[in-house]
Specification:
Strand order of the largest sheet: 3-4-5-7-6
Helix content: 55-70%
Structural class: alpha+beta
Distance between the termini: 28 Å
Number of domains: 3
Largest sheet: 5 strands, antiparallel
Amino acid sequence: MAQVNENIRYEPDERCPLPIAIGVGFQFIMVALVTMVVVPVVVVRGGGESEGYLTWILFAGLAVNGVTTIIQTVRVWRFGAGHVLIMGPSTSVVPVCIAALSGGGPAMMASLTVVSALFQFVLVARLSLLRRIITPVVSGSVLMMTAFVVMEAIFDMAVDVPDGIPPSAAPVIATVTLAAVVALTLRAPRALQQWIPLITIAIGWAVAAGFGLYDFQSVIDAPWFGIPNTADWPGFHLTPDTQFLSLLPVFLLITLSDAIKSIGDGVAIQQVSRHRPRATDFRAVQGAVNVEGLGNLLCGLAGTIASTVYPSSVGSASLTGNAARIVGVYAGIILVAIALLPKALALLLTIPHPVAAGYMIAIFGLIFIEGVRTVAQDGLDTRKAIIAGVAFWICVGFQNHWIFPDLLEDGIWGTLLGNGLASGSLAAILMTMFVNLTSERRRRLNTKLELEAVPEIDAFLREFAAKIGWNQASTERLCSVGEEALSSLLTHDDEQEAEDSQRLRISVQHTADETIELEFITTSDEENLQDKLAYLHEQPEILDEREISFHLLRHYASSVQHRKYHNIDIITVQVEGFH
C-alpha cells in the first residue's frame, strides 16, 4: 500500500482559507528573499558595477520572478508545474555573471542569459529524449549537490553580524533559530505546522534584538513606492567576440545543471504536495522547466540575473504542510509588490543573517534528504550508488578547490569547473551516458496501437527471449507482459482513433542475468498507469477488461513505471525470468 503523507493539510487543488494562503505565501517568500537579494549584491559588487545598476536588477529580478512564480503555480498552456514553486535568481550563475560583468559589462551578461534561455527551451522540448540521461539518479544527485553548494553560503551568513555586535551573538542567534524550527517541526500541533517559518523567524528576531542587532532606519528612509531609473537598463551585447564565445559554453552548462536541478524539484514537489504520492507527471516537470526558461528570457531582456526554481519550495511545502496553488499565487503577488514597494523590501532586509541561516539549515536539510529519496526511488544498486556518490564528491572537491587547484585559478577551466554544481552535474551526466553507451543495444519494433498487433508483438518478444536463452516459462511470462501492457494502453472510447492514428514503439533490452526491460512509447491522455497499479486494490470491483489487464500486468511484471510528457507516453516494465 502507498505511504500516506499525513503532514499535508492542503493539496494543490484544495481550497485554502484566504488568511492562511496569504500568510503561508509570505512565509515561502521570507525563506527565499534573503538569497534573492544577496545574489544580485554579490554579482554587482563582484563585477564592479554601480549602485544604480544594483537597484535596477533587484527591481527587475523581483518583478520577473513574481510573475513567473504565478505562472509556475497556475500553469498556463505548457508553462508551469501546477505546484507551488518559487522562482528566484540562480546562485549557480554567480561566478560566470561576475566574469561577464568584468569582461563585457551588463550588456554581455544580459545577452548570454537570453541565449541560455533559448537553449533551455530546446532542452525541455526534447525532455522525453533525455530520459535515459536525466534519470532520477542524476536529478536527485543534483538536488543533493544544490543543498551542499547553498549550505556553504548559509554557514557564512550564520556568522555574519555588523561591527560592534558581540562575537557570541551570531552563534547564539543561529542556534536558537535552528533549535526552534527543529523543536516545532518535531512536536508542534498540526494546526501550527504551517506557521513554523513565521514563528521561527520571530523567535530568532527577538533574540537578535536582545543583542542590539536591528536597524530600522533604512526602513524609515525608504520611499513607499518607486521604480528605478530605466536608464540603468543595460541593453545587449550583440557582437559575439572572444569573451562572449568563451563564456557561452559555461553559461549553457550551468543552464543545463539548473534545468536538471529544476527537474529534481519538479519531481520532488509532486511527492511532498499530496496525501498519497502519485507517479511523477513529467508534463508538470516540463512545465516547471519551461517557466524557468521563460524567466531566464525575461531576466535577460530586463538585464538582470538568470532565474531558477528555488529548492526551498520543496522544504517549505513539506514543513508547512500547505501546497495549495493559491499560496503560490499570493507568493508571486507579494514578490511583485516588494519590487514596487522599496519600504517593504527594506523591512524584510532587516532580518538578521544568522536568523535566516538558522532557519535555512533546516530547509536545505530537508532538500538534501529529498534528493536522497529521489536517487533511491527505483532501488539503489551499485551503478546508481557510484554515480550519485562520485558526482557528489566531485562537486564538493571542485566547489572547495580541492581538486586541481592550480587549474582553477583563472581562465575558462576555472570558470567552468570552479562551480561545484556544474562540475558535479557534468560528472553525473557523463557517467550515465557511459552506462547507456556500454549497455546492450535495444531491439525495437514499430507497430500500430491496436489489439491486432498482439501476434506481431508476441513473435518479436519470443525471438528476443530465444536469443538470450530464456526458458519456456520465462518466455511465456515476457509475452504475457507484452500483451497485458498493450491491453492496458487501449481504451474502449478511443480504440478506433488509436487504430487510425496512434503508433506504438516497443524496445526491449536484457539489463541483467534474469531481467528484461520493455519500453512502450505512444501517446495517450489516460490516467497514469503507475498510479492505477498502485491503488488497484482500493478500486471497486468493475467488470472492465482493462482492470483484468492491470491485475495481470502487476502480477507478471517486477516493476512498472509510467512517464507522461506532452504528446508522448512512456511505460517501462521490467520482467524477471525463472531460474
